[in-house]
Amino acid sequence: MSAIIHEHDDHHHGPAAGITRWLFTTNHKDIGTLYLWLSLIMFFVGGVMALLVRTELFQPGLQFMSPDFFNQMTTNHGLIMIFGAVMPAFVGLANWMVPMMIGAPDMALPRLNNLSFWILPFAFMMMISTLFMEAGGPNFGWTFYAPLSTTYAPDTVTFFVFAVHMMGASSIMGAINIIVTILNMRAPGMTLMRMPLFIWTWLITAYLLLAVMPVLAGAVTMVLFDVHFGTSFFNAGGGGDPVMFQHIFWFFGHPEVYILILPAFGIISQIIPTFARKPLFGYQSMVYAVASIAILSFIVWAHHMFTVGMPIAGQLFFMYTTMLIAVPTGVKVFNWIATMWRGSMTFETPMLFSIAFVVLFTIGGFSGLMLAITPADFQYHDTYFVVAHFHYVLVPGAVFAIIAGVYYWLPKWCGHMYDETLGKLHFWLSFIGVNITFFPQHFSGLAGMPRRIPDYALQFADFNMLSSIGSYIFGFSQLLFLFIVVKAIRGGIAAGERTWDGAHGLEWTLPSPPPYHSFTHPPRVTEAEAHS
Amino acid sequence: MSEPSSSTYYVPENGWYPIFVAATVGAMLAGLGIWLNDLRSDESPSIYLFLIGCFGLTGVLYCWFAKVIAENHAGLPNADVKRSYVSGMAWFIFSEVMFFFAFFLALFYARVFAVAWLGGDGAKGLTGDYLWPEFEPVWPVVENPDPGTYPNPHESMAAPAFSGWLSYLPFWNTVVLLSSSFTVHWAHTAVKNQDRRKLIGWLGLTCLLGVLFLILQAWEYVHAYQALGLTLASGIYGSTFFILTGFHGFHVTLGTVILLVQFYRAIIGHFKPNDQFGLEAASWYWHFVDVVWVCLFIFVYVL
């Protein structure tokens, strides 16, 4: 069994020359690289917006921007980080790693793969261009609640809607590709229960994407119709209901937050066994935990909207189902800890980020449990406590996992080791910066500081100044990350096939950098190799 | 499922199609946005970018499909690739189901909760009592809470008693679309039996039934707008009615175009008993729009 046997295709074995290599590529590694670079660019764009927000909040009062521009910054920061930074980074990692980890030569639908990537730059051009239009960009929060996004929206909401449609189409096509690749293209012997955890988490994430991105498309479509065609989905005057928007949005939105974290679980489940030099503890329970989290994610959405008013039975239902998610999540956290228990641990940069992930994601999980308690949520709702909660699960959660994954696999991708000293420096700056930024927000939130407001009462001044200083530390230390990545791509110590001595899995049987089409001869996977 | 079934693997060569699809979709949607915003302001509407995008997209898709069909005839893709196409199509249809699910969700929420609460019933009934005490919570909503902003329709599309169905247009639409599901199935069976004459006949009939459905649907819309005063802007009943039937009609239009392409391909002899993914995918898609229609007929028209 070997790959690409058709003789007239021989000239496609290597990359095409020039810019068309990137524009027309059907290669999973090229497309993965494009996704990762787009994600990094968007991470910096969204990061600049976050720093502008933190600069305005450095002191009480209005110093640098109008409240409307402040709203545009918070809105676009959220949209860009979610749809532009975290999701494309995961898809980029999937593109690079899925074929290599399951023993396939490429993704199942390579041209569709190219389309899923290239639709994104157009979508973000459309969305970011609204910031330069007369009406100003979207200013209704990334959750675009009606009537802020309908009756009171700037004209540019039209472009926002179409940009979201394009991002959704890209995600759906990417998800189809990943599902089909994982189900149809595994090497002989790579049974479902031998798949690496990263593959499992991505398979389940892809199903979540398929199920909820179309619902988001439906939600933005109804917004578009309310704005342009006089429908009254979200207007009570015509018999609709603005609260209905929130239900439909969060039916998408809650599975979406698992879309943003499940692949991170997968990355961490690859890295911790490598540096603990022990097999992953409780492989099967990890798989079932991810599946349970995914299924539960469809029946918890209204915990985002306890204060909007709903029957008491609904409040109880959503409170208990939400708390139930803590069980499979706890299984995962304990399994990671058990994997490290009595391991012969070393602390290279990917491992540092992974351990920080386990600790700080768990803090975010606990504050999530607090928010799940309905009566308590009446106090916490729409305060900086919520901001602290979801930034703890998304920044030292999803973003740290992505950075850990990049440090872990970068030597495999480019064939050179990154600079370990600078990597550790990057880790400590990020770790300290992220905690200085977000930990004080728990306190200001519990004391009642509302989110999404450019000004605040004087008693919150110290916490906010601290938060802003932390955000500068975290933000600017990411330039160091860029430097480390570029340096490793340009040269460095040869990485070797099995870069990390504790690493297992098919990707480490390929040379570094791997050949253009990963596996020309499908490897045979045995039980012993799969779970060692 | 796990083992590749053939000894060779096929990676398609690089192509310019995907990025041009992305660019033309971008142009089409940006153009549509500009056009819609122009219509709302007093600027003269500019539709050029939208049209350029539409024509460009059609052209690129034509080239892309032609290329894939040509590659298939040259025998390049193997059984694995075809299996990937089939499961890819299945999951695409699943995502389409979820798209309609969002609008059905809106319909059920409005019927069960929003309208009842606005009429003063249920857990949140107080809202309605304060805002519009005269509003009566009945479905279909023909008297809106605020008729000044959302003018009332004279009449809804709700089905008459069962005895009156013979003069009820949506019933005939259901008959047309359901029978087209059988004809497309028989076309599919015909290709497996290598009976090209029957294939062309049944496929042609399916296309005709699809077009007939669209004509009847357009007629119903004209009737709704002109005689019933039922429009997109006439409150939640019109909103849910037109968005559900409208997106369904859009999908029927797409399905009919896809079937027409397959009809043409059948005439020039593209399909073989073991090699007819295009027809199979078109047929699956057609069954999907059919199932959506059955749900629509039950939940939008009858109940």
Structure description:
- The complex is a heterodimer of chains A (532) and B (303).
- Chain A is mainly α and 532 residues long.
- Chain A has one domain (23-530): Up-down Bundle (Cytochrome C Oxidase, Chain A), CATH 1.20.210.
- Chain A has 17 helices and 1 strand.
- Chain A has helices spanning 20-23, 28-56, 67-102, 110-129, 157-184, 197-228, 242-259, 262-276, 283-296, 312-324, 326-340, 349-372, 374-380, 384-414, 420-446, 461-490, 527-530; one strand spanning 2-3.
- In chain A, helix 3 runs antiparallel to helix 4.
- Chain A is globular.
- Chain B is mostly helical.
- Chain B has 2 domains: 14-76, Helix Hairpins, CATH 1.10.287; 77-302, Four Helix Bundle (Hemerythrin (Met), subunit A), CATH 1.20.120.80.
- Chain B is 70% helix and 1% strand.
- Chain B is built from 8 helices and 1 strand, in the order E-H-H-H-H-H-H-H-H.
- In chain B, helix 3 (79-118) runs antiparallel to helix 7, helix 3 (79-118) packs parallel to helix 8 and helix 5 (169-192) runs antiparallel to helix 8.
- Chain B is globular and about 70 Å long.
- Chain B starts with 7 loop residues before the first strand and ends with a helix.
- Chains A and B meet through strand 1, helix 1, helix 4, helix 5 and helix 6 of A and strand 1, helix 1, helix 3 and helix 7 of B.
- Strand 1 of chain A pairs parallel with strand 1 (8-9) of chain B, so a sheet runs across the interface.
